Amino acid sequence: MTTTATTELMTFDDAIAKYDPVLGFEVHVELNTKTKMFSAAPNAFGDDPNTNVTPVCLGLPGVLPVVNKHAVEYSIKIGLALGCTIAESCRFARKNYFYPDTPKNFQTSQYDEPIAYDGAIDIELDDGTVFTVEIERAHMEEDAGKLTHMGGTTGRIQGAEYSLVDYNRSGVPLVEIVTKPVEGVGDRAPELAKAYVTAIREIVKNLDVSDARMERGNVRCDANVSLRPVGQEKFGTRSETKNVNSLRSVEHAVRFEIQRQAALLDGGGEVVQETRHWHEDTRSTTSGRPKSDADDYRYFPEPDLVPVVTDKDWIEELRSQLPEPPAIRRKRLKADWGYSDEEFRDVVNAGLLDSVEETIAAGASPAVARKWWMGEVSRRAKADDVEPAALGVTSATIIELNELIEAGKINDKLARQTLDGVLAGEGSPSEVVEKRGLAVVSDDSALLEAIDGALAAQPDVADKIRGGKVQAVGAIVGGVMKATKGQADAGRVRELILERLDVQA
Amino acid sequence: MSELIKRTATELAGLLASGETTSVELTRACLDRIAAVDGSLNAFLHVNAEEALAVAAEVDELRAAGKGADLHPLAGVPIAVKDLIVTKGQPTTAGSRMLDGWVSPYDATVVTKLRAAKMPILGKTNLDEFAMGSSSEHSAYGPTRNPWDVERIPGGSGGGSAAAVAAFEAPLALGTDTGGSIRQPGAMTGTVGTKPTYGGVSRYGAIAMASSLDQIGPVTRTVEDSALLQEVIGGHDPADSTSLADPLEGLVDAARHGDVSGLRIGVVKELGGEGYQAGVRERFSESLDLLRDAGAEIVEVSCPNFDYALGAYYLIMPSEASSNLAKFDGVRFGNRVLPDGPTTIERVMGATREAGFGDEVKRRIILGTYALSAGYYDEYYGSAQKVRTLVQRDFEAAFKQVDVLISPTTPTTAFPLGEKLDDPLAMYLNDVATIPANLAGVPGLSLPGGLASEDNLPVGIQLLAPAKQDARLYRVGAVLESKLEEKWGGPLLAQAPDVQPVVDSVVDQGSASVVDQGSASDRAETRAETRMEARAMSHTEATEGSRS
């Protein structure tokens, strides 16, 4: 079912000229604890269906939940990284609804007592513009199982003959991060949406509390968009686009909703408060189910659990363990290294920030580190269409290559061949140099032999040099390099030629 | 009938330790008794003869090999388990068609503890469906009958466990108590039933009705047996977040050294008087006299908010139950019923729940769903929680004045089968005295207080203590029990008539209302009969097997 043909859109620029978008985000982060939120079942991705389950996460009769302390710890870390206040005591509630991916037919989730609340993070756009996004709350809950609809053509529930349920994901710990309404972003709304989710992803990855792989659903974004006429204070009716699972899609989904809602409002229509589905193929959203504030989940405090009490010392200990926030770290590194905005952004976008940092820390200059990582490793990764990090090059590889160059053992051209060898699995740079016989020819007698050959081959050039035209030496150097297949140190060759012809440089 | 089965668990433990009897002999005696009388009582939904005898034989072998000293004192003493508590290797039905034939892949924590103590599990006992009821008539497998009078209810929801213990089918049983389901059947059958402090015994593996109220506890014939069994099953369980960090200790010691001298015992003004049967009041005041003679000071205390406890209970309990029972949808376990027409998930869930749940369960799910609804939450669930707090405060205030509280366990003796089937409110009222303890999480014990003069049926006396002071119940209960037995010249159950066969006319009369409700109930009756046949067979096979 595609509706792009029937959905009327206003151009983005026109939409922004008339309407002021207000955004809101609910980002679900799957924690990478060893076990699930309330059971001892392994929290693992990709295993055979229904193998990582216990009676608890299957919701069998008689079972009881027990809160995973590590999940609480991870949630507190997320709360602290988002600048939130951590609740001294908080509770879980039951959100009651019947659906077969939810084994108990209720989700155990925090409702009116989240573990973290009232935070804010600064989101920096590409051009350096900073927006502050206020965080309303970050609360703990459990993930549902995974439904696979079979027998239909679309893979959706409509038209399916039957559905399969995998409860491996059932009970995986989640933290849901909910923003306050984000106002005043104007035409930067789609960019901000992408940058916000990027920032959340970076933060949880940096904290090592989530694998943060969007393609696996570790980080999932529900994007709320509403429009109000420019100048109006009251919010318009919002739509909630569910489970937008890539950074690019978040940007596109927000843009699409702005254009769709603007066209609707402009035509005298009304935005329906509803959930919407994002379709990557058509880059559009379609209507989901109507959602109102009156959705009745019959929340009540989870009677099988006692309140989660957070001790002040514990929170401070966790705070002291927090890594440097990614945004601050980036600012510091950029200043330390003296990279231009563009140079630095390239490093970040290539995912090579850690590698470059390690290489510089190991003694390479920022220029050398950038030259090798960006010029060579990243280029090759692009050619092979893989992540640079996946190539297996380490900071030690780069340091060793650089040392070989500085010691005069290889030149830049040989160093590139050496890197090829490393990537081909032939060993460390030194081993590759040895195996491939790439070392610069440093034996003067071998070089002199080649020089004599080159001089004899070009007697007129030799005469010119003898006559004082020193710049003509390049032609002889070229001949020597050719004869040695590039394995000579060109500088040394030049010196020897001049010595041989008894000419002062 | 072997005289062995009339012995208390404490006595049996002694006989086993001294070698005067064996666990196999004892277990077989219980199984024989079940075979003899359970056709009348329907206390058991499943008899676990083979496994029980195997465990018994293992205990006997260990004793014979001189390893008796390593065994738990109750090793080899058989026990029955309420069919709300999950057991590996035996069906667990919760008294519901929903779980007919379902076998749990895991053991409840209390069952693990019974196995560790090597207590042979005789089988699973009948109950009101999902423990919802006070008469055991709301079982999908037919009612359990009261051994004192098979035309009467044995109380509920744990009527099966109480009847089994009262009829000497088992020396011990486990029950669960959400609003009185251990204590009220205790009162109805002349047995001892204890609801421990909330969190004193792990709930892991007890199919939840109302999580904040449910508690597993002992069903026995004596106060000391109750203490012994509570010590077996109690203690912290990492699988139950609401279980207490420290075990409740000194229970058996308290039961063995009963003493009320200098103790202040409070008579709860609101739990007596009007609405309580004359014979019940008579026995109650007799118990007060005995305690006074034994050196206790009896004072009256008022707990004014107890008047609202029943109302609050009937909001909190169904609210939690409506959520706890949501998992029974036919998707993952239990029975699945396919509707006529399209088999979408909603329709399959709906058809399953329509066919799988009985009327009382549906009534409570609807009530709870309504009470939790947006717009009604504050008015119903919220208000009920406030009353709950007030009830807790009443207890706190009362326990500042007295050491334990005392009341009749129930307003009446056992009522006839079918009498309250069409009047749920009348049935609910039977729990008026037991409910406050669940709301406050405090421990309560019911022990037999004699027979009401007008109907010669057992009357229960309830003792209540502050949270974690379960030992106090046993200390006082032991005194009252011994004074009463002194007066009776033996245990009350010695006065019980032989279990009568159920004659056809009685069946018709007793289950008249059930039959009126139509074909579903008829099927349940048939199913119960089929099951009884199967049970008799398995018993025969097991008995033969052990002979060879």
Distinctive features:
A: 505 residues, alpha+beta, 3 domains, nine-stranded mixed sheet, three-stranded antiparallel sheet, 16 helices, 16 strands, B: 548 residues, alpha/beta, Amidase signature (AS) enzymes, eleven-stranded mixed sheet, 43% helix, globular
Question: In words, what does this structure look like?
Answer:
- The complex is a heterodimer of chains A (505) and B (548).
- Chain A folds into 3 domains: 12-317, no CATH class; 324-436, no CATH class; 444-501, Arc Repressor Mutant, subunit A (Orthogonal Bundle), CATH 1.10.10.
- Chain A is α+β, with helices and mostly antiparallel strands and 505 residues long.
- Chain A is built from 16 helices and 16 strands.
- Chain A is elongated, with a radius of gyration of 31 Å.
- The model of chain A is unreliable at 1-5 (pLDDT under 50).
- Chain A has helices spanning 12-18, 69-81, 189-206, 247-266, 312-321, 326-337, 341-349, 353-361, 366-384, 395-406, 412-423, 429-436, 444-457, 459-466, 473-483, 490-501; strands spanning 19-30, 85-86, 89-90, 93-96, 106-109, 116-124, 130-142, 146-150, 162-166, 173-179, 219-229, 238-244, 274-279, 284-290, 300-301, 308-309.
- Chain B has helices spanning 9-18, 23-41, 49-64, 109-116, 159-166, 183-189, 223-233, 251-256, 278-293, 309-324, 345-356, 359-371, 378-401, 424-429, 435-440, 470-488, 504-510, 512-516, 519-547; strands at 44-47, 79-82, 121-125, 172-176, 192-195, 216-220, 264-268, 297-301, 404-408, 444-451, 458-464.
- Chain B is 43% helix and 10% strand.
- Chain B contains 19 helices and 11 strands.
- By secondary structure, chain B is α/β, with parallel strands linked by helices.
- The interface between A and B is large, with 31 and 45 residues.
Taking all residues together, what is the mean pLDDT of chain A?
91
Class computed from helices, strands and strand pairing of chain A:
alpha+beta
Strand order of the largest sheet of chain A: 2-6-7-10-1-11-12-13-14
Portion in strands of chain A: 15-25%
Q: Which band does the percent of strand residues of chain B land in?
A: 5-15%
